[in-house]
Design goal:
The complex is a heterodimer. Helix content of chain A is about 70%, strand content about 0%. The two termini of chain A are about 20 Å apart. Chain B starts with a helix and ends in a 17-residue tail after the last helix. In chain B, α3 packs across α15. Chain B contains 21 helices and no strands. Classes of the chains: A mainly alpha, B mainly alpha. At the A-B interface, α1 and α2 of A face α5, α9, α10 and α13 of B.
């Protein structure tokens, strides 16, 4: 991944990771809301990693 | 729990780990890189599991469970944030570390810094900071195990017995056959950690709450404060910031970016680790919430998991105990091996550049013994500042992050910038942690990290970059382009095929 792509992603994910819990999740007293948010975010990043690395070392 | 059963569980499990180490030793060849990083010949699954077992220590089933018990789902956010950042860092920095490590035969992360900045002192300083921060961190693993063993046997097995047993096992695997042995036993330990914790979670969930839905209902009814996100921003950021860059700043994990035998294995390492971390994090935080409902009102939240062991049938308790023992032992073995390699490579070899590879390997082995000895003394002293020291360890290593990022992404980065930022940033951060200075409520790692970044940028701009900076970065970028490492690459000239 290029440095610029990494930086952009890092800023977006940091913003989501910090802002959503404080602006939204914090006001919902629900186990599912918190779990769903962080699990979905982590899973999205893992799926992104799987997709982003799919060509690594592939013979063409 | 009967001390005889605990002994039997530890001996049985250790015997399997020793057999695995013995099998790993059969494939051990000569040379320093063979001993310290497995000759860069590890396959994807073993690489991924050793990464996971090294990263996820006893902290997960003791510290994180306690943190969740006390502060609720914020702990899940903290640990998931760590995982998210680690995956992104591995995707970005993994290929770069791996390529450069292969080109220049790097064995330790500080070698990368010394090479890129053309200054051996950058590597020496990074190594010294790692020693200073990681010996207390490793000792915490030992102390945690000592307290756990002593606690669950009612003192029949003493604190120091638990400490010494753990040192013996982790030291043996690291000393005997180096990374190959550590990685194979790590893989076994990671599988143990996952299987035992999953089994224990399923048991406790159904035994105490009837079903996962019953658990969720009980949580909403009994612990409404813990299922809401209530962490203060300063606490969340202070705790998360050092861990977010853990993959770069902690040499025992960043060294693992050198070990896969191909880019395919590197990719599998990242994916296996990510999936392991995702599941293990959920398990640990669920244990914390369960404990808060089963045993409310504990004075010391860190005792939540050890106390859970007394609430489940003996066999289940032993299974959980073995999982924690595995987690602590694997982390300690990996840290000992990494610090041993750094002593041999980044300190001894800088003093005597002409030493042979076998001498280098011998020095690494001797330093593993010495380091574990230091950890035993540290654990024996049981310093009262243990929580502060462990926070300092993770916060202190953060000062290496700007210099490491600069290696690959900033051509103007200089040795002076790296040295000044790591030295001053490290001292300031450590002093603030030890003196408990939290200006405006923000943690020392935030101030220390900010100061480090400013110093790195300012001093680098004011000094002349090394002549090799352009060539170094251009070569990496070219290679990334040519080998499909890009996100949206259209080039199809793969050179680094699967073995």
């Amino acid at each position: 991944m290029k440095g610029t792509h990494f930086s952009i992603l890092l800023v977006i994910i940091t913003a989501i990771d910090v802002l959503v819990p404080y602006l939204w999740i914090g006001s919902i007293p629900s186990l599912w809301a918190s779990f769903l948010f962080w699990c979905a975010l982590a899973l999205a990043v893992i799926l992104f990693a799987i997709a982003a690395t799919r060509k690594w070392g592939r013979l063409n | 729990m009967s001390s005889m059963l605990v002994w039997m569980a530890m001996i049985f499990w250790s015997a399997i780990a020793v057999l695995i180490a013995a099998a790993a030793r059969k494939n051990l060849m000569a040379g320093a890189s063979e001993f310290f990083i497995g000759g860069r010949r590890l396959r994807g699954f073993v690489s991924g599991m050793t990464y996971a077992a090294t990263t996820y220590s006893a902290f997960m089933l003791v510290g994180l469970v306690g943190l969740t018990y006390k502060t609720g789902v914020g702990a899940l956010g903290f640990e998931m944030t760590y995982l998210i950042f680690t995956v992104l860092l591995l995707v970005t920095f993994g290929p770069r570390f791996w390529l450069v490590g292969n080109w220049y035969d790097h064995i330790t992360p500080p070698e990368l810094l010394a090479n890129r900045y053309r200054n051996k002192w950058v590597g020496v300083v990074a190594a010294v900071i790692s020693f200073f921060m990681l010996i207390p961190y490793a000792s915490v693993q030992l102390m945690g195990m000592g307290f756990l063993v002593s606690g669950i046997t009612g003192g029949e097995v003493t604190f120091m017995t638990g400490v010494l047993l753990m040192v013996a096992l982790s030291g043996f695997t690291a000393f005997w056959a180096g990374m190959r042995s550590v990685a194979w036993t790590d893989a076994f330990q990671a599988v143990t950690m996952m299987v035992t914790s999953l089994g224990a979670l399923a048991y406790t969930m159904f035994h105490f709450f009837g079903s996962p839905a019953g658990f969720a209902k009980a949580a909403a009814r009994d612990i409404p404060d813990l299922v809401s996100f209530t962490w203060e921003p300063a606490f969340f950021i202070g705790l998360t910031l050092p861990w977010a860059f853990f993959a770069l700043t902690n040499p025992q994990v960043s060294q693992r970016m050198y070990v896969p035998d191909s880019v395919v294995s590197l990719r599998r390492m990242i994916i296996y680790f990510a999936l392991f971390g995702f599941i293990y994090t959920i398990i640990s935080t669920l244990f914390g919430l369960e404990a808060a409902m089963i045993m409310p009102g504990l004075e010391n939240p860190d005792t939540a998991m050890p106390r859970m062991l007394s609430k489940v049938p003996t066999a289940m308790g032993l299974i959980i105990f073995v999982g924690i023992f595995a987690a602590a032992t694997s982390t300690l073995g990996s840290i000992a091996l990494t610090l041993g390699s750094m002593f041999a490579r980044d300190i001894a070899k800088q003093v005597r550049p002409d030493i042979s590879e076998s001498a280098e390997r011998f020095l690494g082995q001797v330093s593993i013994v010495a380091l574990l000895g230091a950890c035993i003394v540290f654990a024996w002293l049981r310093p009262g500042l243990i929580t502060v020291i462990s926070s300092m360890a993770s916060g202190g290593l953060l000062v290496m992050a700007p210099a490491i990022v600069g290696v690959f992404f900033w051509r103007r980065a200089t040795a002076a910038g790296a040295l000044v930022s790591m030295l001053i940033g490290g001292v300031v951060t450590a002093v603030m942690y030890l003196a408990k200075i939290y200006p405006m409520g923000w943690w020392p790692c935030v101030w220390g990290g900010g100061l480090t970044l400013i110093l790195f940028l300012g001093v680098s701009v004011a000094t002349k970059p090394p002549d090799n900076a352009d060539d170094f970065i251009n070569r990496i970028e070219r290679e990334l382009d040519e080998n499909n490492f890009r996100l949206w690459s259209v080039k199809n000239k793969s050179k680094l095929m699967e073995p």
